[in-house]
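Retro notes, item 3 of 5
We never archived the inputs for the uridine-5'-diphosphate-glucuronic acid complex last cycle. Fixing that now. Sequence and ligand:
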Amino acid sequence: MIAYATNQFESAGAQPPQISVIGTGYLGTTHAVCMAELGFQVVGVDVDDLKVAQLADGILPFFEPGLEELLRKNLEAGRLTFTTSFPAATTADVHFLCVGTPQRPDSPAADLRHLGAAVDALLAAQPKPGSLLVGKSTVPMGTAAAVATRLAAEAPEVLLAWNPEFLREGFAIEGTLNPDRIVLGLPDDPAARARAEDILRAVYASAIESGTPVVVTDFATAELVKVAANAFLATKISFINAMAEVCEAAGGDVKTLATALGHDARIGPRFLAAGVGFGGGCLPKDIRAFRARAEEIGAGTAVRFLAEVDAINLRRRARVVEFATELVGGSVPGRRMAVLGAAFKPNSDDIRDSPALEIAELLRTAGALVTVTDPAAIPNARRRYRELRYADTAFEAVDDADLVLHLTEWADFREIDPALLGGNVRNLLVIDGRNTLDAGKWRAAGWSYYALGRPNA
Ligand code: UGA
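Structure as it came back at the time:
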């Protein structure tokens, strides 16, 4: 049971701030729903009619455990609405800016078009004087200062804060309601700073009361915390994948190596799972945008290592393709391959920069007959990769397969009985690209089990 943050306003006889959330993608929808769950009156604004209509009907356009139930509950309670009309948002006291900042099609830099358009639309709708605009989108350093300059010129009564979001897909509700930390990037002017901090502390009162640390800082540091955190996580994953490459040459076992490293509390065991590497809508584009922006501001040398982090990550995908080719005897055309996994990680239907699908597509373009299965991501995969084949279950996907590739570590795949699955394939050959299948069990069932960075005897 969640203690509503708004209770404190009620007991003080004050009105809780009304909230608008601009951009109802993954981040914005989660934030809007969670703010409503805390008891605030929330309006979600987006330019996409279809998405807004779905959300208003209680349909979540993506897969996130528990979120659809919470969406419906708060719609029914009348605390949450969705609209395409920016003027409808202008009664809000706090506007959270949650639009996407994808990689630009023509360069590694972040595409800030949606952010610019959202600020344009909000300013055109004339937000209330004294209201607070809070940036949550992941942005290159200097973006908040640029937005502040616009506000100073066009809406000097509107305050600005930068408050990055660190939620992980699959854990989005928990990450929003009980974050590891709250970072508040605030303006330099003391009065504006104090007012923005007061408002945000009120909005996040329940998390703060339950002990979430608050880091108060300037705009640039707040922007940087987000990209630096993702750069660190990406580096940790690429570090262990680089060790997997070394293990392959030295005959070591990267899984045991990671376990041993993780026992050192300074290193820790998390984000040391070696395999086909990181994908998704955040880590890959964020490390590229970070490098691009650092170059622009004269700090490119400091983060040049991120090019290697990216290269190590992409090499793992190429390695799986090479490995698959070797295992089917050097010639891919006409070979039947089953790919278990399409989402960039389990418990998600997100296929953005998914290692599994990139590998499947590379094998298909090399001539393999590739069939992909995934518990949640097939509809999205079908729309993007039209020439791959799809199956509803692993048992159908592996039908007559020469090779099985396990590329997204859903629990469903871990629970498969390899002896039963073996009855459907042509060859008992599996590459475990995520190092999470029970190697002993698969081998005992007669499979030749191969993993990355581990002895394959
Ligand atoms: C990531 C960060 O973890 C969040 O803190 C951040 O807020 C978010 O990006 C964001 O910027 O919005 P997310 O993309 O949801 O979250 O996914 P992660 O759980 O970080 O996984 C990223 C990728 O790394 C996945 O493809 C996953 O399979 C891979 N991974 C993760 C590994 O290959 N090994 C690991 O040990 C951990």
